[in-house]
Amino acid sequence: CACVFLLVCVCVCVCLPWGGMTVDVFNFEEGAAVWVSDPAVVWAAGKVVSSDADQLKILLQGSDDDADDLEQELVVPRKFPTEKARRQEGKKLLRRDPDFHGPGTLRFDDLTEVPELHEAAVLEALDGRFANGLIYTLTGPVLLAVNPFRTLHGLYSPERLKSFCSDEHPLRPHIFSLANQAFQGILRHGESQTVLVSGESGSGKTETTKFVMQFLALAGADAVTSEIGRPLSRVERQVLRSNPVLEAFGNAKTLRNDNSSRFGKYIELQFGREDASWSKRLVGARIRTYLLEKVRVVDQLSGERSFHIFYQVLGAQAQADCAGGSCPMSPQGSGSCSGSPVSDTVEDAHHRNVAILQEDLQPFEGLTAASFKYLRSTCPVTLQRGNDSEDFEETLASMRTVGFTGGEVRDVLRALAAVLYLGNIEFSPPKGNSEGSQLAMTSNNDSLGSVGELSSRDAATALCDFLGINLNVLEGALCFRTMQAPGERVIRMGNTLQQASDSRDALARHLYHALFNHIVEKTNESIGFKDDATFCGVLDIFGFEFFETNSFEQLCINFTNELLQQFFNLFIFENETALYRSEGISWDAQEFPDNGVIVELLQGTPNGIFPMLDEECFVIGGSASSWQTKLVRTHDKHPNFGIVRTNKDNFIVKHFAGQVTYTATGFLDKNRDRLSGDIVRCLSDSTWPFMQDLFGAEEQSRLSPRSSPRTPRTSSGIVPGASPVHSPPRRSMTASLTSVINTEPQMSPLASTGRFGPTFSLDMTALSTSASSKVRRAQRATVSVEFRQQLQALMSQIKTTTPHFVRCIKPNKLNVPFADPAADVPVPLFDRPSVSEQLAYQGVLEAVRVARAGYPVRYLHSDFLADFRALVKNPELSVTLRDARRQFLESADEDLEMPSFDCAPAVKLLLTSEEVSSLVGSEGIGARWTFGKHRVFLKQEPFAALKAQQSALRNSAVLTLQACQRALQARRTAMRRRAAVVRLQACVRGIKARRFVERLKKEAAVEVILSVLHTFAARKQLFQARRATIKIQAQVRRRSCQKTYKKSLMAVRRLQAFFRETKRRRRLLRLPQLVLLIQKWWRGFADRRKARQRKLAKLRLNRALRILLKARAKRQERLRWREETLQAYQKWYRHGPGVQGIFPTRDSQFQEYLALEKEEECMKGKVDRLQDQVQQLRDKVRRVKEGGILFHLGLA
User: Fold this and answer.
1) What is the pTM of this model?
2) Cα separation of 920 and 939, whole Å?
3) Percent of the chain beyond pLDDT 90?
4) In 3-state terms, what secondary structure has residue 522?
5) Which segments within 546-639 are labelled E, that is strand?
C-alpha cells in the first residue's frame, strides 16, 4: 500500500506543476483571427497580436465604417487554475475565418458549407445577410427566417412562387423552396410530410404558415405553374380562407406583437388525385389546435388586449349604430393569401350578398369595450394598423367560406355575448352570512358610467336569456357547490365571494374554449378529411419561453420544446449519419449530444416532475410547497435540476436552451383546472340547442356507468375534490393546451378539452353508488396527463412523416424595420443579443453542436487543397499539388455545375505527406480526421494544429517578403540619393554661371541707366520751359476771348428783347379777332341754350294752362252739380219726403256734399300752387331776357 501511495504521489507531482493544475483553453497563435465574447454585440471580431504562455493580446476590430474609432486592445488570460475560474472570467474565444465577415457572409446560402461553424459564425451570417435584404438562411435542412417587419418587393409574388414549383432544384433559402420540397416528397415518393414552424411572438410564424399553405394549395392546383391554371376547388378555397376566422378567435395583441397567435396549431393538408389526373391536389384538411391561452378572456396584462373577435364584434356594432340601420356587414373580404390567383365563384358571390342583420348584433347594441369588465382595462390599447369593423367583415367571409350558415354565425355571436356578459356579474354576501355569496342586485363597480352601463342584475338576466337557463339555477350553480364524502350523503355548500368569482371566470374561460373548439371542428367537418390520403402537416407552435416568473404553463411549453428538440436532434443525427454514409466514412455516435435526460426528468415514471405533480394533486392535504420539497429530495443530485437557496418555493430545470427558474406556487391548482359539476348540469339543461350540443354530451358521459372505467372527455377540465382556480393577474398563459380536435360529430367541442386539454368532471353518480376505488382511480386525470398524452400522439404522428424545420427569428424587440427610417440609406435593425437568445432557445445552436459533434471542421477537397498545400516542403509534391489546383480551377471556369477534375488523389497525397501527417496523425479507428468522397472531416485539435502551422508558415513567408521588400527599398533609396547628388552638383554649377552672367548684365545695365538719366534731366528742363510758355500764351488769349464774349452776349440780349417785343405786339394785334371769335361762339351757344329754355318754358306754360283749364272746367261742373243738387234739395224740402227719386236719404246726401266740399278745397290748393309755378316761370324768362350772358355764367 505504501508503494502504491508513493507511486501515485510521484505521478501527481510529475503531472501537476508547482502552481497547481491549470486549464489552458485559449490555444491561438499570433495573428489568428478570433471571435471574442462581448455583452453588447455577443461576439466581436478580433485578431491575436501577441501570444505567450500566460496571456493573449487581442485587437478588437470595429465595423467597416468606424474601425479606426472602435479598435481597442484586450488582454485575455490564457491559463486558469480551475475550470470554475475560467467560467468566472467570462471571456470566450472562437476561431474566426477572416473572409467570413461582413459581405463575405453572402457566399454561403447554407451555413453547413462553412468550414468552421459555431455560434459566432451563425450570428454573423444572419446579421450580414439580413443587412443585405436576405431574410432566409439554411443550416442544413433547417430554414432560418428573420422577420423583416416590412414588405420585400417580389419576394412572394406569383412569379417567384412559380419559379419554385419544380423538382429540379435543390433546397434553397426560401420558404417556397422548403414547401416545394415537402410537396415533391408527396408527389414523387408518396410520403407524408410535416413542416414545423416555431419562434417567439412577433417572429412571423403565422405569416410563414400562411405562405406554406398558399404554396401547397396553389402548386397542387396548377394555379401558377401552367399557362391556364385549373380553378381552385372548394377545399383549396376553404383552406386558403380559413386563416381569418382562426386568427380572429385565437389571436390577440400582446406587448410583443399586434397579431400574436395565442394557440398552436397542426394543420394536415391532404393530397390526392381527382378526375383521374396524374397530379395531386388538396382533397382534404384537418386542423388540430394546442396551447389556447383562454385565461386571456378574463385577464390581460397592461398594454395587451383580449382576443380580436370581441373588438371586431363591438366595432361592427359601433359602425352599425353610426349608420342607424342594419349592419352593413357583407362578407366582401376574400380571406385569400396575398398574391394568390383565387377567382370568384357563384358561391363567393352568394356569400357577398348575404348580410348580418341588426338583430344578430342586438346583444352588443349601445355597448363598448368599456361596458364589459373583461375588456375594460384594454380600452386605451389600440392596434397600429387595421380596422376592427373591416376585420369583422373578413372574419364573416371566412366563416361562410368554411361552411358556417347564418344561424350558426348567429349562435357564435350569441355565445360571445354570453362570455362578455359573464364578466359583469357581481356577487355580494347574503344577510347574516359573510361566508356565502349571491348575485348582486346592482354593480359594485363605481367606474361604470351612465352611458353603456351594464349592471350585474341586467347582465345576469341577459346572460340567462342567451344561455337558455333560469336565473335562479345559474345563481345556485355559481354560488353553491355540491360535495360528497365517501359513504356519506350529498351535501350542498355555499361559495365565498372569491370562490363564486372564480367559478364565474372558469365558466367564461371554458365557454370560450368550447366555442373555439366548435369553430375548429366545424371547419374540419366542412373541409373534410380522408383517413387514407397522403398529407403535409404544418405545425405552428410556441418556442422556448422563460419570464421573470415562470409557472405551470411555461413548464408545459418548454417540455413540448424539449420533445421537439429531441426529435430535432434525432433528425439532425440521421442527416449527419446520411452525410457520413454518403461520404463513405464511419463515425462514433457516442459523441452525439442528447437531451433525453431532461425529458426523463420531466416525464419519467414515477419520479418525473409531471408524475410527481399528478400524484400530489390527489394526496389529501397536498400543496405546492410539499411537492417542491419532494422534488428537491428526489432530484437534488440530478445534473439538470437545481434549487434556489434564497427561495424555497422555486426550483430550476436546466433545459437544452438554458436553465429556467420555476415558481412552484399555483402548480397544483393549474394542474387541477376544472369546471364545477353544478355548472355543467346547469348548462346541459339549457333550452338553447347550441348550448345543449356543447354540454349535453359531457353530462351524458358523467351519468353513464360505462364512462367510469375509461377517461371520459369533458369540457370542464376538473378533477374531484378541488376548487375553481382564480387566474393570476400576470400573463400566465394558462394557456389551454387545447386538445386535438376530434371531428366526430357526436363529441361536443367542450367535451374534448380542458384548460390544457381533455380532463375529467366530477361524476356524482359514481360517488353515490359506492364504486370501487379502482374505478375512481381510473377517473383521476389532470391537465398534465392529458397534455402529455396529446403531445405523445402528436409526436407519434410527426415521426411517421418526413420533417422540414423552419425557425422564425425576431430581429429586434421594437418590431421596427430600421434603426433610423429617416436616414438616406436606412440600415435594418438587428439586435444581436436578442437574436442570439432566440437561436439558443429554438435549438439552432444545439443543432449546430449536433451537426458538428463528430467532426466539427469540414472542408471540400478543393478548399482543403487550396488552404493547406503550402505546408508541403517537398518540391516535387508541391509541383504536383500546384498542378492539381490549376487543373481544378480550369475545369471550374468552364461554367459546369460540378468541376470535372477530381482533387481527391491530390488531397490524399497532401494528407499523407510528412509535414501534414505529423500534425493530424494517420487515418483509422480513433483518428482525428477522416477522408470522404467529397470532403475532409477534421476534429478541432488537428484543425487548430493545421491552422497554427499555416499561420507559422505565413509568418515566415511574410518575414521573407518583408526582407526582400526592405532590400529593394534600400537599393531604390541609394539610387535616388546618387541621382540627387548629381542633380545637386549641376544645380550649384548652374548657379555660379548664372551669377557671373548676372554681374555682366548689371554692368551693362548701369551704362544704359546713366544715359537714360541724362536724357531724362534734359527732357525735364525742356518740358518745364514749354509748360511756362503755354501758360503765358493761354493768359493772353483768355483776355481777348473774354472781351469778344462780352460783346457777343450784349448783342444776343438786345436781339432777345427785340424778338420778345415783336412777339408781344403780334399777340395784341390778334387778340380782338380772337375775342370776337370767342364772343361769336359763346353767343351762339347762349342763344341756343336760351331757345331751348324758352321752348321748355313754353311747354311748361302750356301744360299749366291745360291743367288750369281742366280744373276750371271741372270746377264749373261741380258748381253746376252743386246748383242742381241745391235745387233738388229745395224741391224736396218744399214738397216733403213724399217726392220719390230725388234723394235716397238725407244723411248720405249730406255726407256726399261734405266730401265734395273737401275735394273743392284741395283743388283750390292745387290751382294756387300751379299759379305760383307759372309766375316763377315768367319771372325766370324775364331775368333771362334781361341778364344775357352774365345770367348764364351765374354772375347776374
Assistant:
1) 0.67
2) 9
3) 28
4) helix
5) none
